[in-house]
Every structure is written in C-alpha cells, then in structure tokens.
Design brief:
two-stranded antiparallel ribbon; two-stranded antiparallel sheet; mainly alpha; 111 residues; 57% helix
Length: 111
C-alpha cells in the first residue's frame, strides 16, 4: 500500500510580498464572492492560488492556504484583543504593547 506523499513545508516569508498579496487576494475574494462557512469558497481558493503562482511563482494547495488563512486570522484576533484592552497598553505610534512580563504571561495563558 502506497503511503501518502508528504507536502513540503511552505515558507510564506521566503519571498517578499507573497503574504501581503495572499491577504489582499483573500479579502478581494470574500468581498466579491462571499464566504463558505468561515473560509473562502473552493473557486476563490483557486483564484488566490493562481494569483500567487502568476505573480510570484509561489505554488500552494488549498489546504496550505487554508492553514495560513486560519493562522493569520487567529493572530489578528489575538492582536485585536490586546489592542482593545483597557488601560494604556497599545502604542499606535510604535505599534507595540506596553505590558510587564507577568501581564504577558497571563495573556499567553488566556490565548
């Protein structure tokens, strides 16, 4: 019985601009064609993959794109939660959070 071929790990930061283009393409697809559940429609994933291949020769499959989409969505959610935290925590000028180590440890446990 043949074993499933393991996909090579994708480095989204390897080529400058790939991740930004990926996000822009996802936003365009959702705005234009809507969602399917909490994700993009199958046809939209094909459009995003085609754009990445055309503009960067960056080849990814739907599962790899969905994993990155979910990761970035979770990362943004965590950032937004911290940004909206009461108190003088977020500095928009430096785009940093002003928290002590013990505060960070508490946030990490909650996330």
């Amino acid at each position: 019985m043949a074993m499933a071929q393991k996909r090579p790990r994708i480095n989204w930061k390897q080529i400058e601009g790939v991740e930004k283009t990926f996000l822009e393409a996802c936003i365009h697809e959702i705005t234009t064609y809507g969602r399917e559940g909490s994700s993009l429609k199958a046809s939209s994933w094909k459009n995003v993959a085609e754009r990445l291949k055309t503009e960067y020769n960056f080849v990814v499959d739907q599962k790899q794109m969905k994993n990155r989409y979910d990761y970035l969505k979770a990362k943004f959610g965590a950032w937004l939660k911290l940004k909206n935290k009461t108190g003088n925590v977020y500095n928009p000028i430096t785009n940093t959070f002003n928290m002590e180590e013990d505060e960070w440890q508490l946030e990490i446990k909650v996330l």
